[in-house]
Amino acid sequence: MSQPEKAYSISVENLTKKFDDFVAVDKITFNVKKGEIFGFLGANGAGKTTAMRMLIGVLEPTSGKGEVAGFDIFKNSRKLKKHIGYMSQKFSLYDDLTAKENMRFFGGIYGLTNKEIRNRTKELLTHFGMEHIEKERVSSLPLGWKQKLAFCTALMHKPDVVFLDEPTSGVDPSIRRQFWEMIYETAEGGVTVLVTTHNMDEAEYCHRISMMVAGKMITVDTPQNLKDKYKLETMGEVFLHLARGYEKEHAITAS
Ligand SMILES: Nc1ncnc2c1ncn2[C@@H]1O[C@H](COP(=O)(O)OP(=O)(O)OP(=O)(O)O)[C@@H](O)[C@H]1O
């Protein structure tokens, strides 16, 4: 399915979500280029998942605009879903199916033919060095391998943009590194990646990151620029500096 080439893979303007009077996402504005790894950083409850759910077309925005892979997230959410992959925080692969059977299942959901499913499964498992788990039941796999497999299922239909919601939460550091290598290879192939995390080490791996505090996007930049700007060593320090600064300012404004 062809679509006009757009300047950005993700384009968001003043996107807002309210739950009754509570503003979970407050007028966020940002753009993400094709093949870019864009991180959503923020503490628990900052609004990352809510923002992501609007971008994948499953949660209706209260106001504002958003376009993903050339499709309006509200008006074209059905078409949009064919062009994106999504790995949720609690992705449920089928525990009693093997790795390959899970890929076949998700390939079917994305509307691939049997031949496409066979080829794509082989291609992804080989590319990411995962052939040996092909016949393993998911229930017998360690969490990190389940997450790597879940990432593969999200790539079955060759999406333009893939959304990963805390994909390495609870995963041990060596598998986490392997997972990030998968993310890099995917982005190098031209797929845009939006990843949420509250792990500050992972922020260093993103091309650009945004920081969310209380529903607001308080900054968007490269990790290096942010560290240089505030003369700090790590993204953890940058996050604390910005979050505390925002909270202080907010308290002063509110008093
Ligand atoms: N359906 C809903 N109804 C009411 N409030 C909601 C709903 N979904 C989310 N919220 C609230 O919106 C705020 C943002 O939640 P969200 O899950 O987007 O945060 P998050 O940054 O993804 O946090 P976490 O890292 O814990 O997943 C929270 O205060 C949450 O309780």
Describe the protein in words:
This protein has 255 residues and is α/β, with parallel strands linked by helices. It has helices spanning 48-55, 77-81, 99-109, 114-127, 143-154, 173-188, 200-203, 223-230, 235-254; strands at 10-19, 22-32, 37-42, 63-68, 71-72, 84-87, 161-165, 192-197, 208-213, 216-221. The strands form 2 sheets. It has a 6-stranded mixed beta sheet with strand order 6-7-8-3-9-10, with helices on both faces. Helix 3 crosses helix 4 and helix 5 runs parallel beside helix 6 (173-188). The protein is globular. It binds adenosine-5'-triphosphate. Residues 10-239 form the ABC transporter domain. InterPro entries: AAA+_ATPase, ABC_transporter-like_ATP-bd, P-loop_NTPase. Keywords: ATP-binding, Nucleotide-binding.
Mean pLDDT: 91
Low-confidence stretches: none
| Number of distinct helices | 9
Strand order in space, largest sheet: 6-7-8-3-9-10
Order of helices and strands: EEEHEEHEHHHEHEHEEHH
What does the radius of gyration come to?
19 Å
Topology of this structure?
Layout: E1 10-19, E2 22-32, E3 37-42, H1 48-55, E4 63-68, E5 71-72, H2 77-81, E6 84-87, H3 99-109, H4 114-127, H5 143-154, E7 161-165, H6 173-188, E8 192-197, H7 200-203, E9 208-213, E10 216-221, H8 223-230, H9 235-254
Parallel strand pairs: 3-8, 3-9, 6-7, 7-8
Antiparallel strand pairs: 1-2, 1-4, 4-5, 9-10
The structure holds adenosine-5'-triphosphate.
InterPro entries: AAA+_ATPase (IPR003593), ABC_transporter-like_ATP-bd (IPR003439), P-loop_NTPase (IPR027417)
GO molecular function, one term: ATP binding
Domain ABC transporter: 10-239
